[in-house]
Design brief:
Strand 7 (249-254), helix 11 (263-271) and strand 8 form a beta-alpha-beta unit. The chain has 13 helices and eight strands. By secondary structure, it is α/β, with parallel strands linked by helices. The protein has a single domain (2-303), classed as Alpha/Beta hydrolase fold, catalytic domain (Rossmann fold), CATH 3.40.50. 47% of the residues lie in helices and 15% in strands. Helix 1 crosses helix 7 (176-195) and helix 7 packs antiparallel against helix 8 (206-213). The chain has an eight-stranded mixed beta sheet, with helices on both faces.
């Protein structure tokens, strides 16, 4: 009996490692087929893509927790039509970028962005746009750099807790969270994608592409690390700093967003009274995909005004 218990226990301990090893590794060959370029940075390879006319002012797009840079398919076109040279890239652990085994703190993500800009020789003024967790990163960058001319945050994290029950806390708890994420994280995310699937998407296979990410090695641990080390932190001080610097800010919200609570808008308004807000009716957290024309209109009014 004791041996049966020991074997079962050993199997349970080994299961998350086995599950992760069975996932598809990010290889140089896969990166070579990426729709863009690969920058060899100090912390690891980073996939990036330019759109828009070379020589135009630069706008940088930073994606969120789980969806790589292709989330900006429509946004890139909107910014390019406004006369910007648009840079989008995959955060470490997502898309075609390297799987870096470090704590994904705000400083970690800012380090990747700074290294990429240095690698590309981008040293002039910038417009920075961040979606969801990318909004938190973009705000942190604007608060620490003196070259951000305008900041756009779309459904940004870091302003108000979205609510956390005991089940949610289990997923980020030490040891238990690692086990659950590696064994069941992909299943849970794919089920959530099916439940919230929308037909009105800029990218027709949007959910399928995101589901495919869960089958890549290093993706789920990256999400867990970001949840623990950046999504659990507040960006209030960064928003105050941005306000003090006088950087114009546009915040775009989905009125029916199930991820970002509506009190986030009030929190940002209190931290930065000069920030401009646009709330899109009936839009959820996938508003970049489901409401591209409304997002484009908000960007046009803010950037061309």
């Amino acid at each position: 009996m004791i041996w049966t218990i020991l074997v079962v226990a050993a199997g349970l301990i080994a299961l998350p490692f086995l599950a992760e090893m069975l996932r598809i590794p990010m290889s140089a060959a896969r990166q070579g087929n990426a729709p863009g370029e690969i920058a060899q940075l100090p912390q690891g390879a980073t996939h990036y893509r330019w759109s828009g006319r070379e020589g135009n002012p630069v706008a940088v797009c930073i994606h969120g927790l789980s969806t790589p840079s292709y989330v900006f398919a429509a946004t890139e076109r909107s910014l390019a039509s406004l006369g910007y040279r648009v840079l989008s890239y995959d955060l470490y652990g997502r898309g075609y970028s390297a799987r870096v085994r470090k704590r994904q703190t705000l400083g970690f993500h800012l380090g990747q962005l700074r290294a990429l800009l240095k690698h590309l020789g981008v040293d002039g003024p910038l417009v920075v746009l961040g979606f969801s967790m990318g909004g938190q990163i973009a705000t942190g960058f604007a608060a620490r750099e003196d070259r951000v001319e305008k900041l756009v945050v779309v459904a940004p994290t870091g302003l108000a807790e979205s609510g956390s029950d005991s089940r949610a806390r289990m997923w980020t708890a030490p040891l238990m969270g690692d086990w659950l994420t590696r064994v069941f994280g992909g299943i849970a995310l794919r089920r959530e994608l099916v439940e919230h699937k929308s037909l009105a998407m800029v990218i027709p296979d949007f959910e399928d592409r995101q589901a495919a990410e869960t089958r890549m090695r290093g993706y789920l641990p990256a999400l867990l690390s970001s949840r623990r080390h950046i999504l659990s932190a507040s960006s209030s001080s960064d928003h105050k700093r941005v306000a003090a610097l006088g950087i114009p800010v546009l915040a775009i919200w989905g009125a029916a967003d199930p991820v970002i609570p509506r009190r986030s808008m009030a929190a940002l308004a209190a931290l930065n009274p000069e920030a401009r807000h646009v709330e899109i009716k009936d839009a959820g957290h996938t508003l970049l995909q489901t409401h591209p024309s409304e997002v484009a209109a908000a960007l046009r009014d803010f950037l061309a005004g």
